[in-house]
Design a protein that fits this description.
By secondary structure, this protein is an alpha+beta fold. The chain contains 16 helices and 40 strands. Helices cover 27% and strands 34% of the residues.
C-alpha cells in the first residue's frame, strides 16, 4: 500500500476526474479498477477477483459471491503530458437488484467508463446503466474488455454498442491480435501500435502499425474523424479540405464532443492481462470532464422545458423555491450532496459527500438544508476501499467521507447556513419484495434491532417493519438477491443469525369509496375509566398521493391536545390493513366531530380509539389490494417477438412499445411482480437464451378481484 502519496499536490480542479466504472455483472469492473490502482501506484500487488482478494470488493461476502455490492470511493494520481491528474473512482455494482447504488453514484459522477465483455457485447445491465447515465448527463468512454478471451470479438462488440446503445459510439483504439495473441492496441489518434511485451503490462512499446492492420486502422480513423467533424465545424472544414489533423487538434475536438454527450469513444483492452490500461487512464484524463466541465439539467417546473447548466449546479432556494445555482469552484459558498451513508465498525456512521462548491473544514458545523438541521463535521476522510486517510480541508470537486453526522441521510444537501440551497435529491424506488425473518436464538434477538437499524440507515431501498398481529419482522427490498445480501450482512457483519421465510410481494391496501364512521371507546365500569369518541370521513386518494390528515373539529368537541394522538393512532393502524395485513396507502382522514370525558379521556384513549376506528372504517369503504407493477425491457431477435409478447400477456403483462434496436427488437412492457418470479429462466427457454431482460418497479395497481383470494391464500401471513 502506498500511503505516502500526496494528493494535495493536485490543486487545480481542471486536473480532477470524478469517474465511475459501470457495467453488467462480470464484465470486469472490479478487475479494471484493480488494474487502475496497480498502474497508478497505489498497490504493489495485483489482486485478482477469482482469487478473492481484489481490494475494492472488501466486504467478505462480496469476495465469496464475486460481485460488487457497495460502492467504494477511491483516489489515485496519473501523470500525462507533464501534468499530474487526480482520479476519484467510485466502484458501482452491476446487478439489477442494486440499481439504487448505481443511481446514486451516477448522480454525483462527472464521467464514466462503461466496461463491456468482448465476447458478450452489450448486456442488459450495461444497456440500462448506459441510459441511466444519460439522464444524469454523464459523459462516457466505452471499454471493450476481455479481448484475450476465446470467442472475443472487438468489432462485433462495437457493432452491438451501435445497435443497442448509441450510434454516436466510435473506436479510438483497435486491438492488435485477438484471444491468446492479443498483444496491445492501435491508437487511432497518433496512428501507432502500443504493444505490451511483458506480462505485467508495465512496458508499452510504441511501434508502427503492423502492415496487416493498416487497412482496418485507416478505415476506423476515417470514421473517427468523420464523426468528430459531424459535431465540430473546424474539424469539418479541415476534413473537407483534406488537411492533416494534428493529434492535439483531434483530441481537443474529441474532448469537446464527449463533454457534450455527442461522442462516445470506444477503447480496446484486457484488464486481466494488463493490456490497454495505461491508454485508458490517458483517455480518462484527456476526454472525461473535470468538475468544471460537468453539465446538469433540471426540469423548469413552469414550462417543463429541460434547461442545461454548464459549469454550475442548479438547486432550489429552500425558502422561495426559486431555482438558484452555484458555480463549481471553491470561491463560492459551500454546497454538497450526501449520496451514501455507510456504517463502519471503527468510526461509526460515514456520510459520503460530493462537494460541488466552496470549502469544508473538519471541526466545523454545516447546515443540512434538506431537513433544516445543523450537523458537526468531526472528521473528513479520503477513502481507499477499506483504508482511509484523514484530511483537514476539502473543496469543490472532492468526494469525501464525513464522520460526525447524526441525522443526515442519503440524497440530502449540506451547505453554508447563510447561503442555503437544496440540490435535486436522489430518487429511490419503493421496495417490492419482502421476507419474514426470525432470530434463531435469544442472543440473535438482542442484537437484531440495532443491526437492522444500521442496515436501514445505509440503504434507502431497504426497509424493516414488525407485523402488528404476528409480531414477525418483515424486511423489504428491491429483489430477492438484494434481501439475500442483507441477510448475509446480518450474519457476517453483525453476528446475527436468522431464519428466513418465502419471498412475498409487497402488496398494499387502499379503499375505493368514501365512508363516514364513528368510533366510541367507553369503558367506565370499575377502576379508572376510558373514554374517547371520534367521528371522521375516510376518503380514497389517487395512486401515489399518500396519506393526508385533516382536522376539522370546531368548538372543541375534541380538545386540541388529543388531535396529534388521533393522527398517530391512525398511522399505526395503517401499517396493517384489513385485507391481508398489508400497509394502507393513499387515503385521507378528516376528523369532523367527537366527544370527550373530563376524567376518563387522555391522549392514549384517543390514540387507541383512532387505531380501531380506522380499521373499522376501512372495512366500510370497499378495501382493495394493490400490487407492484414492474417495467420490463426485453431485447430479442425479431423472430422471438411473438413468443415473448405471448408469454408476457399470459403473465397479465401489457405491451407498451416495441422498438427497433439495430437488428434486434426491444419490447417494453408492464407486468405484475407476482407473476414474474422465475421469468428470467422462462424467457431463456422461450428464446433459446437470446433474450436480455431487465426489470424495475414502476407503480402500484389494483389486483383484479378474481385474483385477490388466490394471493391471500398463497401469501397470507
Ligand atoms: P465485475 O463483476 O464487473 O466486477 O467483474 P470482475 O472484475 O469481478 O470480473 C469477472 C470475471 O472476469 C473474473 O473472473 C475476472 O478474472 C474475469 N476477467 C476480468 N477481466 C478479464 C479479462 O480482461 N480477460 C479475461 N479472460 N477475464 C477477465
Ligand atoms: Mg465486481
Amino acid at each position: 500500500m502506498n500511503g505516502s502519496v500526496d494528493y494535495s499536490k493536485v490543486r487545480d480542479l481542471r486536473l480532477y476526474r470524478n469517474i465511475g466504472i459501470i457495467a453488467h455483472v462480470d464484465a470486469g469492473k472490479t478487475t479494471t479498477t484493480e488494474r487502475i490502482l496497480f498502474f497508478t501506484g497505489r498497490k504493489h500487488k495485483v489482486g485478482e477477483v477469482h482469487e478473492g482478494e481484489a481490494e475494492m470488493d472488501f466486504m467478505q461476502q462480496e469476495k465469496e459471491r464475486g460481485i460488487t455490492i457497495q460502492s467504494a470511493a477511491t483516489t489515485c494520481l496519473w501523470d500525462l503530458d507533464g501534468q499530474t491528474y487526480r482520479i476519484n473512482i467510485i466502484d458501482t455494482p452491476g446487478h439489477v437488484d442494486f440499481t439504487a447504488e448505481v443511481e446514486r453514484s451516477l448522480r454525483v459522477l462527472d464521467g464514466a467508463v462503461v466496461v463491456f465483455d468482448g465476447k458478450m457485447g452489450v448486456e442488459p445491465q450495461s444497456s440500462k446503466v448506459f441510459h441511466q447515465a444519460e439522464k444524469y448527463r454523464v459523459p462516457r468512454l466505452c471499454y471493450i474488455n476481455k479481448l484475450d478471451n476465446i470467442g472475443a470479438d472487438f468489432y462485433r462488440s462495437y457493432d452491438s454498442i451501435v445497435e443497442h446503445l448509441t450510434d454516436r459510439a466510435v473506436p479510438i483504439s483497435l486491438p492488435v491480435g485477438i484471444e491468446s495473441s492479443f498483444s496491445g492496441i492501435i491508437d487511432l489518434v497518433i496512428m501507432k501500435a502500443l504493444l505490451h511485451k511483458d506480462d505485467d503490462g508495465k512496458i508499452v512499446v510504441v511501434e508502427d502499425i503492423p502492415s496487416t492492420l493498416l487497412e482496418v486502422a485507416n478505415k476506423y480513423r476515417e470514421k473517427l474523424i468523420e464523426m468528430v467533424a459531424d459535431v465540430d465545424d473546424d474539424i469539418a472544414i479541415k476534413y473537407l479540405n483534406g488537411d492533416n489533423l494534428t493529434p492535439d487538434e483531434l483530441r481537443n475536438a474529441i474532448r469537446k464532443a464527449v463533454l457534450q454527450l455527442k461522442l462516445f469513444p470506444v477503447m480496446a483492452g484486457s484488464s486481466l492481462r494488463n493490456k490497454g490500461i495505461q491508454a485508458m487512464l490517458d483517455n480518462i484524463c484527456r476526454y472525461l470532464p473535470s468538475p468544471f466541465d460537468k453539465s446538469f439539467t433540471v426540469d423548469d417546473n413552469i414550462n417543463n422545458i429541460e434547461k442545461i447548466y454548464f459549469g454550475e449546479v442548479p438547486g432550489k432556494n429552500p425558502v422561495s423555491d426559486e431555482i438558484i445555482t452555484r458555480k463549481l469552484v471553491e470561491d463560492e459558498p459551500f454546497c454538497g450532496l450526501v449520496f451514501k451513508i455507510m456504517n463502519d465498525p471503527h468510526v461509526g456512521s460515514l456520510a459520503f459527500c460530493r462537494i460541488y462548491s466552496g470549502k469544508l473544514s473538519s471541526g466545523t458545523y454545516i447546515y443540512n438544508s434538506s431537513i433544516d438541521k445543523k450537523e458537526r463535521v468531526a472528521r473528513i476522510l479520503l477513502m481507499h476501499a477499506n483504508h482511509r486517510e484523514e484530511v483537514k480541508q476539502v473543496r469543490a470537486g472532492d468526494i469525501v467521507a464525513i464522520v460526525g453526522f447524526k441525522e443526515t441521510r442519503t440524497g440530502q444537501t449540506i451547505c453554508d447556513e447563510n447561503n442555503p440551497i437544496v440540490l435535486e435529491s436522489i430518487e429511490f424506488p419503493d421496495p417490492v419484495v419482502s421476507f419474514a425473518i426470525e432470530p434463531k436464538t435469544k442472543s440473535d434477538l438482542d442484537k437484531l434491532g440495532d443491526a437492522l437499524s444500521k442496515l436501514v440507515n445505509e440503504d434507502p431501498t431497504f426497509k424493516v417493519k414488525t407485523d402488528q398481529e404476528t409480531g414477525q419482522i418483515i424486511i423489504s427490498g428491491m429483489g430477492e438477491l438484494h434481501l439475500d445480501v442483507k441477510i448475509r450482512m446480518l450474519k457476517d457483519d453483525y453476528g446475527v443469525d436468522v431464519n428466513v421465510g418465502k419471498p412475498q410481494v409487497a402488496f398494499r391496501e387502499t379503499i375505493s369509496v368514501e365512508g363516514t364512521h364513528r368510533e366510541l371507546l367507553k369503558k367506565q365500569t370499575g377502576g379508572a375509566g376510558q373514554y374517547a369518541d371520534i367521528q371522521f370521513i375516510l376518503r380514497p386518494r389517487k395512486r401515489g398521493e399518500g396519506y393526508k390528515f385533516i382536522d376539522s373539529i370546531k368548538g372543541g368537541a375534541i380538545p386540541k391536545e388529543y388531535i396529534p394522538a388521533i393522527d398517530k393512532g391512525i398511522q399505526e393502524s395503517m401499517l396493517s390493513g384489513p385485507i391481508g395485513g398489508y400497509p394502507v396507502v393513499d387515503v385521507e382522514v378528516e376528523i369532523v366531530d367527537g366527544s370527550f370525558h373530563e376524567v376518563d379521556s387522555n391522549t392514549d384513549t384517543f390514540r387507541i380509539c383512532a387505531f380501531y376506528g380506522f380499521k373499522n372504517a376501512m372495512k366500510l369503504c370497499q378495501p382493495v389490494l394493490l400490487e407492484p407493477i414492474m417495467k420490463v425491457n426485453i431485447n430479442v431477435p425479431e423472430e422471438y417477438v411473438g413468443s415473448v409478447t405471448g408469454y408476457l400477456s399470459s403473465k397479465r403483462g401489457i405491451i407498451k412499445n416495441i422498438l427497433q434496436r439495430g437488428k434486434t427488437k426491444e419490447i417494453v412492457a408492464e407486468a405484475p411482480l407476482s407473476e414474474l418470479f422465475g421469468y428470467v429462466g422462462d424467457l431463456r427457454n422461450i428464446t433459446s437464451g437470446t433474450a436480455s431482460p431487465t426489470m424495475e418497479p414502476s407503480h402500484y395497481a389494483e389486483v383484479p378481484k378474481g385474483l385477490m383470494e388466490k394471493f391471500l391464500g398463497v401469501d397470507s401471513k
